[in-house]
TrEMBL record:
Keywords recorded for this protein, A-Z: Arginine metabolism, Hydrolase, Manganese, Metal-binding
GO biological process terms held by the UniProt record: putrescine biosynthetic process from arginine, via agmatine
Gene3D superfamilies xref list: Ureohydrolase domain
Cross-referenced InterPro entries: Ureohydrolase, Ureohydrolase_dom_sf, Ureohydrolase_Mn_BS
Keyword Magnesium listed: no
Cofactor: Mn(2+)
Residues that bind Mn(2+): 155, 179, 181, 183, 264, 266
Pathway terms, separated by semicolons: Nitrogen metabolism; urea cycle; L-ornithine and urea from L-arginine: step 1/1
Name by which UniProt lists this protein: arginase
Reaction(s) catalysed (UniProt annotation): L-arginine + H2O = urea + L-ornithine
Co-factor binding comment: Binds 2 manganese ions per subunit.
Length: 336
């Protein structure tokens, strides 16, 4: 039914004779249907987890299949279903390295995807789309003990997600950001919502007290200047051997509302994850990333895994499995 309505609204939008208020009314119905879908799924999963008892925090997957804010390729829009498929692939089991069982809904649930393309097809602009993403994240957080684990999508989604987490929890969070790029341009190529500008929006909004960027190896003078402007702690790969001990023994989140982890799959060396839009040699090994995650002392309140591009993956889906493994280990870090 939603697809039929979406096609109809898209058609009406092309007719100059259609009153603006009629188009806006149709857009509002699609937005409300989208949020209702997330709200009811989150409510159902939250009730299930609470009924089972024993969970103080439980990871809940939320897909945000958005790719149009990428400066190069839009393939990350297709990532969420591929990551889900890989999570439950029969080639591996459902136990994380820390011993959490993903089959247990007290550990992991799934509330589905924000219907990004449907919203864009009916004329929703990016300002409103970002608000809808934020509202969707808040709906998950409202269902205690669910905590959102977001599947991107390009890295522009981190801004509305972190904003929602900060606003819902009532204060800034510490952010651990693993990436080949700092994504902190003020307005990349004229797009304030570019995936290369998401952390500028986060920092200027006051949603993060402390931002640590790890794995950086493609950074311009503006990236460094913006980092200094916002007081960002940037750990570049050229000094990783020196920084390793510190990064593998992080303690974050004191005196703030919690810790948010954002993992861009291209933080990894392309030998481990070739299925990304921006291939940048000289990155972290997969075990480097797991060592940082496993040893992190923090109350992780939300996380995202972004920038996996299925259109550039190997034929056997190796990067999908890598992204799924990151999600699995983040699940273990969040759930308790």
């Amino acid at each position: 039914m939603m697809n039929i309505g979406r096609r109809g609204i898209h058609y009406l939008h092309t007719l100059n004779s259609v009153p603006k208020n009629l188009i806006e009314e149709g857009q509002n119905r699609v937005v409300e249907a989208s949020l209702t879908l997330i709200r009811e799924r989150a409510k159902l999963k939250g009730e299930l987890v609470r009924a089972l008892g024993g969970a103080k925090a439980s990871s809940s997957l939320l897909g945000v299949p958005l790719g149009h804010n990428s400066s190069f390729l839009q393939g990350p829009a297709f990532a969420p279903p591929r990551i889900r498929e890989a999570i439950w692939c029969g080639s591996t089991n459902a136990t994380t390295e820390e011993g959490k069982e993903l089959n247990d809904p007290r550990v992991l649930t799934d509330v589905g995807d924000v219907p990004v393309q449907e919203l864009r097809d009916c004329g929703i602009d990016d300002d409103r789309l970002m608000n809808i993403i934020s509202e969707s994240v808040k709906l998950v957080i409202e269902e205690d003990p669910l905590r959102p684990l977001v599947l991107g999508g390009d890295h522009s989604i981190s801004y509305p997600v972190v904003r929602a987490v900060s606003e819902k929890l009532g204060g800034p969070v510490d952010v651990l950001h693993l990436d080949a790029h700092p994504d902190i341009y003020d307005c990349f190529e004229g797009n304030k919502y570019s995936h290369a500008s998401s952390f500028a929006r986060i920092m200027e909004g006051g949603y993060a007290r402390r931002l640590l960027q790890v794995g950086i190896r493609s950074i311009t003078s503006e990236g460094r200047e913006q980092g200094k402007r916002f007081g960002v702690e940037q750990y570049e790969m050229r000094t990783f051997s020196k920084d390793r001990h510190f990064l593998e023994n992080l303690k974050l989140g004191d005196s703030v509302k919690g810790v948010y982890i954002s993992i861009d799959v291209d933080c990894l060396d392309p030998a481990f994850a070739p299925g990304v839009s921006h291939i940048e040699a000289g990155g972290l090994s997969f075990r480097d990333v797991l060592n940082i995650l496993h040893n992190l002392q923090a109350d992780v309140v939300a996380a995202d895994v972004v920038e996996f591009n299925p259109q550039r993956d190997t034929v056997d889906g190796m990067t999908a499995m890598v992204a799924a493994k990151l999600v699995r280990e983040l699940t273990a870090k969040i759930s308790k």
